[in-house]
Design brief:
Elements (H helix, E strand, L loop, with lengths): L5 H8 L4 E2 L1 E6 L5 E6 L2 E6 L2 E8 L2 H9 L1 E6 L5 H7 L10 E4 L2 E4 L4 E13 L2 E13 L5 E4 L2 E4 L3 E2 L3
Antiparallel strand pairs: 1-11, 2-3, 2-6, 4-5, 5-10, 6-9, 7-8, 9-10, 11-12, 12-13
Length: 160
């Protein structure tokens, strides 16, 4: 089978607009850890089921050990939070509270407390499939990622 050129694949995939979320968990020392992800997918409503895709590292180890993770959907002003959890930190640690035993970021648009029910290894990532044990939301606008840039609302780029 012929495979797509990785650069062309990345450029084509960036044309799919996604929300931006931060996955959170407690590591083996009880410390909050997180990572920016746009690979959050709802799978089923009954039971409420989601999946995330995570590469090896601290977050992968935390989810693997605890079998739990939180999904924090970022608000439109969450670009700095997204960059922080993508490893491009600028400033202090973000505010969070512990909800359902998971770190929940302040001011997130939606939060999902997730219990892992299945894992699937795919190439260099693991899909963590989980049932949602608790969730909440507000009506604020979410941060959107399209064409490798953050956007506010429909079509308004935040960074250039």
């Amino acid at each position: 089978m012929q495979r797509a050129d990785p650069l062309a694949f990345r450029q084509a995939a960036s044309r799919f607009a996604t929300g931006v979320a931060v996955l959170t968990a407690l590591d083996s020392h009880g410390e909050a850890c997180g990572m920016t992800a746009n690979s959050f997918v709802t799978i089923s409503l009954s039971p409420p089921t989601v999946l995330v895709s995570v590469k090896s590292g601290r977050m992968h180890a935390a989810i693997s050990a605890s079998r739990r993770y939180g999904v924090n959907v970022l608000p439109e002003q969450g670009g700095a939070l997204s960059r922080h959890f993508a490893g491009r930190s600028r400033g202090t640690d973000p505010d969070y509270e512990i909800v359902e035993g998971l770190p929940r970021l302040a001011n997130c648009v939606a939060f999902f407390a997730c219990e892992v029910t299945r894992t699937i290894d795919v190439s260099d990532h693991t899909l963590f499939i989980a049932e949602v044990s608790e969730c909440d939301y507000c009506d604020d606008l979410p941060l959107v990622f399209f064409s490798s840039r953050y956007h506010l609302g429909p079509g308004t780029p935040v960074d250039r």
